[in-house]
Amino acid sequence: MTKIVASFFKNKGGVMSQNLLGKQIGDEIDEEQKEKIRDLIDKQKIKGISIDTTAFGRNATDLKAGLISQLSQFDESHPAKLVISEVIWNEVQAHLCESLTELRGKTEAGIKAGRKLLGAENPILQQLSELLNSKNPEDIAASTIEEFMAACHATKLDLDSYTMPSDIFKRYFSKKPPFQLGKNKSEFPDAAALVSIESWADHNDTEVLIVSRDKAWEAFATESPRLHLVKKLSTALSLFQKHDDFLENFLNVFKDEIKDQQSSSYFTLESALWGEDWLSNTKIENLKEDAGFIVEEVNFGDVVQLKLEDQNSIEPVRVEKDCVHVEVSFFLSATFDIQILDSTFPSTSRKSSQKRIAEIMRNGSCHMSAHIKIPFKRVDSDIEVHIEPFDLTLSIGDISAEDWYEDDDD
After folding, report:
1. Cβ neighbours for 212, distance < 8 A, ≥ 6 positions apart
2. Where is the domain boundary, 239, 257, 281?
3. Best-predicted range by mean pLDDT among 98-112, 322-336, 383-397?
4. Beta strand ranges found along 320-353 (DSSP E)
5. From the CA atom positions of the chain, what is the Rg in Å?
6. Do residues 251 and 314 make contact, with C-beta atoms less than 8 angstroms apart?
């Protein structure tokens, strides 16, 4: 690929990511299609797996935990290889850099506030500030994605090696996927990523299972003899696992436990919800911010309903000698305790240490997933739960006078 065209795709950071994260397509493939893909994997017709930006989702800030970390099973001993297009590499790195920059800003604000409380020369805050300034988000993002690729023994598909401009422009002028959906600024990066994956498959005489929720990727895979698409990473990983009677029975028992509110497995999952950062993951609506109201805390209250999504709610994503990793999809309805600060208080007639706070309770619901590690021989405490990133929306609305009280820090 010519350096000019390759450079174009390498420097399109942020273009495709926004588009990919915004597009959702239909339900996952049916059982018949899953069996066909599983058969191709068993016969080693499919010896590659690749993912797009949507598969990373909001996990890009933590690639060592949860579902995304289970891609490390595709090591040198595994018959399949994880391959990631340079386009996706750059997009994920751009997302990570953006998130780290935001976190850095929040940390700097915290240090600034701490100096007002503890003094400008506080040695701990000074040390923290120096540590924060010792590395920039760009370097951290680059090293994070490189460490992830190394842990997964993944191959980066360089555009110079696997993408020819002529292949892309032929698709463009004939309106073949991903160009058939109309004008879109993400189509060329999409095409570069997909052509590079298909080219790698051609070079290695194999087929590749790709994970994406993007319509353009789905259309491309439908026409490609080398590519097969699923929409969920958990489904893709599940297809690579050996499903024997022992595993099926083991998972059925675990599924029954999750449905039983009196079981230790249900309690372990519920306990993990208590430890989540609900404030950062919650979108607040109908709050009178112009009146100076600020949400300070969002705390998990009580479960109203915790229900598995469907028959495929528990998917085995990695089977090891002594344990199985599963992805559990569930619907959560719960109460949440919210603390709101009136930033216009106190008035000049009151002590500066006084706060005016409202504590209210609101109901909320969202679809969630959890990555759970279950030993085959276990006691209850052996279960490890990692809640995947989620989105919750809470509507504040009117706050009654009875909800407000004055708090004195002194």
Report:
1. 20, 51, 52, 54, 55, 218, 229, 231
2. 239
3. 322-336
4. 323-342
5. 24
6. yes
